[in-house]
Amino acid sequence: MDDFTLQNPVMATYAIAACLMILKAVGMSWLTVQRMMQEKGGYRAPEDLRRTPLNPDPDPKQLAPNERVERIRRIHQNDLENIPFFLVAGLLFVLTAPPLWLAWLLLYGYVLSRLLHFAAYLTAQTHDMRATFWTVGSVILIIMTLWTLVTAVLS
Amino acid sequence: MDDFTLQNPVMATYAIAACLMILKAVGMSWLTVQRMMQEKGGYRAPEDLRRTPLNPDPDPKQLAPNERVERIRRIHQNDLENIPFFLVAGLLFVLTAPPLWLAWLLLYGYVLSRLLHFAAYLTAQTHDMRATFWTVGSVILIIMTLWTLVTAVLS
Amino acid sequence: MDDFTLQNPVMATYAIAACLMILKAVGMSWLTVQRMMQEKGGYRAPEDLRRTPLNPDPDPKQLAPNERVERIRRIHQNDLENIPFFLVAGLLFVLTAPPLWLAWLLLYGYVLSRLLHFAAYLTAQTHDMRATFWTVGSVILIIMTLWTLVTAVLS
User: What is the rounded CA–CA span in Å between residue A15 and residue C112?
Assistant: First the structure.
């Protein structure tokens, strides 16, 4: 069928949104690494206290939670609770052959909501602002999933 | 090819099961929010103690773990450990063109096992009951994955 | 289209890599169960202290963190941060119709990097060795995602 190729503009839209979200989530791992290196702490495994080229002066305090690292871990966990489900819901949404404008609105709207959520969380804005951006993304995800569910049930 | 459309009954079965599981997992986020609002606690980020319209009377105790909230977080974490892998394993299982009765049995059986696991965990049934429902789902997931692996290796 | 069937060698390669990674991640759940049974501890839910056939002699210490169990949980969490994104990135990578040798290199290279990461983490090798294997996998994931993103943008 023709829907499931990058020549289908809806599929290409999904692929772009999905790749951006994958890079975003994987970026949280790298940001955690960067902050652990800056802070020389926030580690989690006992063996990380061994003297190595990357950790020449080990100290038991390095295993204590470090808020700058924990902040990224909380953002990362929020990604894990949301993005994998978006990735599959978006793929199935493509199969329902939605109009291109709707695919743009929902898929890029989701990406935008997650980037704003990240910016609000990283800079410690109020819970209310962070929750607003999260809610926009979550509602988009639910709409796409319900749309696909209804289409599949009726097919 | 014809397998990868919602006109294929096996694919439609997968899409329905996948949408239900996505809604289930996303529902855990909303249930966490609901319980955090009921308990006015179980928050995690230091900035959540700022006075805002959603939190008019902040109190440092709001950052302490709250068992009613933590219960949903444990259920959610269990979803994250299982459902994303089901979503991809199920999709690949469709590509092997299994008989429809088998797709029904495995895909809807998985959904049922996860809903029962949720009910048992939410109401704090014994570990043994919860573990039984989890095991059913995990074994289904392993069967689908092995089936797909063997089919792909032999293809 | 012909890309999205197991008759396409690139798709079959992806399916094999994906199934191996799903089994790996699900295996962490079973390894956690096995270690919880060996240690008779490392439990997390208050109701797990009830006397049941699987836990005939409950003890409050069973809810304390147990390092042998926590090690598997950390490995599992690392899987959750990586493998779901690999599963979707790999699927979209197939849609770009890459040369078979490149698909082999990236997809099986990723699987190998994760298995080595697991071996290093399980046996508590230095952070530097574990980080090296993680980095190889994460870079492969980023390459596949960027490749797909560029292909989708140009399509």
Answer: 26
Q: Which of A1-15, B128-142, C15-29 has the lowest mean pLDDT?
A: A1-15
Residue ranges, chain B, pLDDT below 50 = 1
Chain A residues 56-75 with a CB less than 8 Å from chain B:
67, 71, 74
Strands (E) across B13-151 are located at none
Q: Do B81 and C76 touch (CB under 8 A)?
A: yes
- pLDDT tens for each residue of B91-133: 999 999 999 999 999 999 999 999 999 999 999 999 999 999 9
Q: Which of C3, C127, C142, C145 to mutate to test the interface with A (most CBs of A within 10 A)?
A: C127
The answer to whether the beta carbons of residues A141 and A110 sit under 8 Å apart is: yes
Residue A37 CA to chain centroid, in angstroms? 22
CB atoms within 10 A of CB A135: 15
Tokens of A98: 């939605």
Q: Are C117 and C28 in contact (CB under 8 A)?
A: no
Sign of the CA dihedral running A44, A48, A54, A58: positive
What subunits make at least 3 CB pairs under 8 angstroms with C? A, B
- For the stretch A45-91, pLDDT in tens is 999 999 999 999 999 999 999 999 999 999 999 999 999 999 999 99
Tokens of A33: 């690494």
Give the whole-angstrom CA distance, residue B22 versus residue B6. Answer: 18
ipTM summary value: 0.96
User: Cα–Cα distance between B88 and B112 in angstroms, integer?
Assistant: 18
Contacts of C142 (CB under 8 A, 6+ apart): A23, A26
Q: Do C85 and A18 touch (CB under 8 A)?
A: no
- Partners of C125 on chain A (C-beta within 8 Å) are 47
Bridge partners, B52 (sequence order): B55
Residues listed for chain B: 155
Q: Check B54 against A128: CB less than 8 A apart.
A: yes
Residues 6+ apart with CB under 8 A from A112: none
- Write out A17-79 in H/E/C secondary structure: HHHHHHHHHHHHHHHHHHHHHHHCCCCCCHHHHCCECCECCCCHHHHCCCHHHHHHHHHHHHH
